[in-house]
Amino acid sequence: MDLDLGQVRAFVSVADQLHFSRAAGDLFLTQQALSKRIKRLEQTVGVSLFTRNVRSVQLTRAGDRFLPYARDLLATAEAAGRALRESLPAIRVDVWGQVHAPTHVLRAAGSDTTLSLSMRRSDAASTGALRRGELDLAFVGTLTAPLADLSYEEVYREPMAVLVHPDHPLGNLEVWTVDDLRHTGIWYPDLSAVPELQAFFHDYAKDNGIDFTVEGTNLGLRDGVALMRQDPARVTVLGAEWDIGDEKVLRRVPLTPTPAYSWSMAWRKNDRNPALAALVQRIRQVVRRKGWLDLADNPAFVDGPRRG
C-alpha cells in the first residue's frame, strides 16, 4: 500500500482535534483541501476513517486501529528527515538582539538542525547579509521598504510596558495610560545605534503627544536600568518581556492601550534549503499554537507605529 505522508499527517491531525476546521488551521490548509486529503487516504486504504455529522467528528473502528500506525509512520519520517538535516551545515540566523522577542521565538520553535546565531541589531544590516548569502534567516522589525527578493512573515507582536521608580509620584499605579505618559514624559538613552527601535519609540511619543528626552549614552539595557534606579524622576517605555535581570527596585507596569513592536522573519525567496524550510514551518506552528499574533483582537492591545 502506497501511503502519502501528507494524507497521513492530515488524518492524525483530525484524529487529534476531532475537528476539521482546527486541524486545517494547524496544517495551514483550507478545510476543503484537508477534506480532500482525508478522502484520498480513505480511498487508498479502502475504508472510512471518520464518521462525520454537523455536530461531531469521530474515528471509526478502522480509524482507531490505523491511528497508532499512522503516528509511527510520521515519527519514522521525522527521524529520517532529522538524520538528513543533522548532516547539513548550520542554519545562520540573525536574532537582532539578546533581550528581544526573536530569541524567544527560536527557543519555543526548537530545531533539529544546528543554528549559528548572530545579533546585528539592525534591520538594514541583517537584510543586507541575507541578500549577500551570509545569513539564511533574519528577524526584522519596522519595515520602511520590504525588499522584493526576500520573503517576510510576521511572527510576534512584542508588547511594551512602562518602567518607573516606586518613588516617582505615579510610581504606585498598577496600570499606566497614554495620559499618564503625557504628564510625565519619557526618557531614553541615545538609541541611534539601534535605528529601528529609536524610530519606534520616538514615533510612539510624537504620535501620542508625549514629550521625550534623549540623555546619556546607550551602554546596554542593564546600564539604562541602573541610571533609572539612580533617578526616580525618569520614566521610560520598554519591552514588557525584556530581561532586565533580578531587578528589585524599579517597577515594570502594563501600559494601555499597549503599543507593540512587530517582528517578522525574513529569508531569500530563492533559498531551497530544506532545513531552512523545516525551521520556518516550525516557527509558523509555534506562532499559531502560542497565539502570538492574536493580541490584535484584544481592544486593550494596539499596534505601535509601524512603517510599511
Structure description:
The protein has helices at residues 5-17, 20-26, 31-45, 61-85, 101-109, 123-131, 178-184, 195-207, 221-230, 274-290; strands at residues 50-52, 57-59, 91-94, 115-118, 137-140, 150-164, 176-177, 186-188, 212-214, 235-239, 251-256, 260-268. The chain has three domains: 5-85, Arc Repressor Mutant, subunit A (Orthogonal Bundle); 91-154 and 263-282, D-Maltodextrin-Binding Protein, domain 2 (3-Layer(aba) Sandwich); 157-260, D-Maltodextrin-Binding Protein, domain 2 (3-Layer(aba) Sandwich). It is elongated, with a radius of gyration of 24 Å. It has 308 residues and is an alpha/beta fold. Belongs to the LysR transcriptional regulatory family. InterPro entries: LysR_HTH_N, LysR_subst-bd, WH-like_DNA-bd_sf, WH_DNA-bd_sf. Residues 1-60 form the HTH lysR-type domain.
Spell out the key features of this protein.
single chain; about 300 residues; alpha/beta; Arc Repressor Mutant, subunit A; D-Maltodextrin-Binding Protein, domain 2; eight-stranded mixed β-sheet; 10 helices; elongated; disordered C terminus; LysR family transcriptional regulator; LysR_subst-bd; DNA-binding
What's the structural blueprint in terms of helices and strands?
Layout: H1 5-17, H2 20-26, H3 31-45, E1 50-52, E2 57-59, H4 61-85, E3 91-94, H5 101-109, E4 115-118, H6 123-131, E5 137-140, E6 150-164, E7 176-177, H7 178-184, E8 186-188, H8 195-207, E9 212-214, H9 221-230, E10 235-239, E11 251-256, E12 260-268, H10 274-290
Parallel strand pairs: 3-4, 3-5, 7-11, 8-9
Antiparallel strand pairs: 1-2, 5-12, 6-10, 6-11, 6-12
